[in-house]
Amino acid sequence: MNPLSKPDQNPEIAGAGGLTRRIGAALERVVFGSLLLLLILAAVAYGAADPSWKSFFTSLIFAVGALAAIQYLIDDQEGDKRWVSALLFLLPVLVLIAFSLAQTIPSTRSSGAPFKISYRLWNSISADPYETRIFALQLTGLALFAGLLFRYLRTQRRLRWLIHVIIGIALASAIFGLLRQTMQHEDGFWLPLLKLDQGYGQYINRNHFAFLMEMGLGLLLGVVAGGGVGRDRLLVYLGAFLPIWTALVLSNSRGGILAMVVQLIATLLLFPAAVPLENAGRGNAGRFIRSSGARLAMIFVLVMLVAGGVLWVGGDRLATRMESGRGEFADSDEVRLGVTRTQIWRATLRMIESNPIAGVGLGGYWAAIPSYHEAPGSMTPQQAHNDYLELLASGGILGSAIVVWFAVLALRRARANLRAPDRFNRAACFAALIAITGVAVHSLVDFGLHRMANAMIFTALIVIATSNVSTGRTRLRHDV
Asked: Which one is predicted more confidently, 330 or 220?
């Protein structure tokens, strides 16, 4: 026997350690699979638009978090650094949660709420402390969802799973929307709350459906343009692109169509940043793709082709929707009721002017807007139809500064990922950024991120763009 060799371990101890590792590996696969399943189920449930659905899926996220905590205690040999990285990145979100809770702290001032309710609980920064606490709880759930994805999204195999699940959700929703448009003749089409001529796909609001299509479309555009797809699979991705694009056009969402055009332009403009010269092709072809004049010409041709395709596919229904947009500037029922976007935005600006520092409470917009909304009162807006204005009105300068802080951190991490040596990781980051761009543009005129399914998928896009994923040359023992 070699005197320098170590004595054999106790077989019972070794067996117990092996069993623990197997249980930990199984739990890790269950947690990651549960995160993907939550995305699917949230989209099926009308986009989780109803408050009860939001609460349900927030609770499910916490349940998955509890399972992840058990897995962490049993067998976490590779996740410590990822937890620390996720916490540092999500620090602004945690600060925003604390800020929203601070908005609900009761004060002694007598005019805390726009309704001048004397009950002490209402004398706080937030016009509706209860809704602000609900907002804080849901944001905590989304932060936990992001943290879990950061922890378990460790290999390219899992990254591909996440991207394909999001694209699959968009594709299935698009096909369902097309089937519903052609086959629904009465209220209730597989889902009881889907009324005839209302919403699109499984969504009650057609504009919120468009948000989902933009995210799926952006991922497809970015992955293909970034070189993350082999030539043998290009037709598969093109086959998924067409129904998603068609459903987006036929949903007749003006903001969605604008976002789609911007996504196409952004894909061409950001292409040199995502694809190094050696991957775009050397010689005249590579230089041509990167020349500013060529990209501008391609943008012009692309916009013309998209405009022609949109008009051809959308037809009279789209023209009617575009024409209805003029009603926001002319004498119409919406103008008389004060519910056009321009009128809502003016009221929101007055609210911002009156509450510039801390806002009226995150989630408290609906309770504060009646004091600034000049209208008969038969219809009162519940949202600002512009997430940026609503953030400034609800969170003030302080809340907006926290969100800008988070955006800066995200852009820095995404910029680093765009320079990653691995082609697929670079393409995945590029694709997520294109999808996020569409959401950012559409949020100028709508509030689709208020829907839990859209918010969860948007959170997943942020993780895809900013996470540090292993190249996956060798499969990890916990991989799915």
From this structure: 220
